[in-house]
């Protein structure tokens, strides 16, 4: 009996190692096949789904994997995701960047003590539909404008942004005191933001270098945070017709929301909660509605 008890964690880890390597190789082989024109680029969606599943598989293995293995596998997922994004951008180039039309509504200007500097330009999608260098406005993109497109929001201050419909991806960088409403059919990437509120839904959510921000989310895999502090999370509620319609188009299931699974790359302990994020207490949850800004 003692031998069985000792060997069980070892067997679990061995089984995990084999499965992880097999799944990772499958994703890598699919990327190579697309690059060599062996399979259609339509398979990009399937690859993203497999990356999400691999991340979930790693999350479920936290209880028995040593911290070193967690970090190593997390880095491998980050690398394969980067390869996916680079190949996706190479084979499915985006249209020329266009700024959204200026709406007639404006919001009350508030004083912002600190201004974010734009992040490294090489990290920003320059050829997407979106808004850039705007402040104190209500900004809206229609369903027809966004369907299956890649959206970029860059350097916004004190803005309310409503992205109707279901864009493919949404990339958000250098925002301060903003409210963002969006539903992406695949992924949302947030970087270098602070003092903001996100009401968002997607398969995958990644948050980097972001501080003092609340997220009301729906995510089918798990949210990933890195170099973040004072983040708070709560489940997204379908409180408006705009959001409900986006959910239907994306074919999301409201009951399948992994909003509580937050994978903090800076905190690998399985036994203590990360100090970098928390759940929003139920009595403090006040999800804003995009209806107030349309």
Verbal overview:
Residues 1-7 and 95-127 have low confidence and may be disordered. With 294 residues, the chain is α/β, with parallel strands linked by helices. 31% of the residues lie in helices and 27% in strands. It is built from five helices and 15 strands.
How are the SSEs ordered, and which strands pair?
Elements: H1 2-35, H2 44-60, H3 67-91, E1 98-99, E2 129-135, E3 138-141, H4 143-146, E4 150-157, E5 160-163, E6 169-176, E7 179-183, E8 187-191, E9 197-202, E10 204-208, E11 211-219, E12 223-226, E13 229-235, H5 241-250, E14 262-264, E15 277-279
Parallel strand pairs: 1-2, 2-4, 3-5, 4-6, 5-7, 6-8, 7-9, 8-10, 9-11, 10-12, 11-13, 12-14, 13-15
Biggest sheet statistics: 8 strands, parallel
Number of helices, counting only DSSP H or I runs of 4 residues or more: 5
Beta-strand percentage range: 25-35%
Which structural class matches the secondary elements?
A: alpha/beta
Attribute tags:
294 residues; alpha/beta; eight-stranded parallel β-sheet; globular; disordered N terminus; 27% strand; seven-stranded parallel β-sheet; 15 strands
Give a summary of the structure in a few sentences.
The chain is α/β, with parallel strands linked by helices. The protein is 31% helix and 27% strand.
């Amino acid at each position: 009996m003692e031998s069985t008890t000792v060997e069980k964690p070892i067997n679990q880890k061995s089984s995990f190692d084999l499965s992880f390597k097999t799944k990772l190789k499958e994703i890598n082989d699919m990327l190579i096949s697309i690059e060599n024109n062996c399979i259609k680029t339509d398979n990009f969606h399937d690859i993203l789904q497999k990356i999400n599943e691999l991340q979930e598989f790693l999350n479920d293995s936290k209880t028995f994997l040593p911290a070193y293995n967690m970090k190593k596998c997390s880095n491998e997922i980050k690398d394969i995701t980067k390869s996916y994004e680079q190949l996706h951008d190479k084979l499915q180039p985006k249209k020329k960047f266009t700024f959204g039309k200026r709406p007639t509504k404006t919001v009350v200007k508030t004083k912002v003590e600190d201004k974010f500097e734009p992040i490294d330009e090489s990290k920003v999608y320059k050829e997407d539909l979106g808004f850039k260098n705007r402040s104190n406005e209500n900004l809206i993109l229609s369903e027809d404008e966004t369907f299956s497109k890649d959206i970029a929001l860059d350097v916004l201050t004190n803005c309310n942004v409503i992205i109707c419909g279901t864009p493919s991806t949404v990339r958000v960088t250098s925002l301060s005191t903003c409210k963002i409403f969006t539903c992406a059919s695949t992924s949302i990437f947030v970087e270098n933001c602070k003092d903001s509120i996100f009401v968002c839904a997607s398969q995958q959510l990644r948050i980097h270098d972001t501080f003092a921000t609340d997220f009301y989310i729906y995510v089918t895999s798990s949210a990933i945070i890195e170099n973040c502090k004072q983040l708070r999370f709560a489940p997204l509620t379908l409180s408006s017709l705009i959001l409900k319609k986006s959910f239907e188009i994306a074919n999301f299931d409201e009951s399948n929301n992994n909003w509580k699974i937050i994978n903090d790359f800076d905190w690998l302990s399985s036994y203590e909660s990360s100090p970098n994020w928390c759940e929003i207490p139920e009595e403090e949850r006040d999800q804003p509605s995009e209806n107030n800004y349309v």
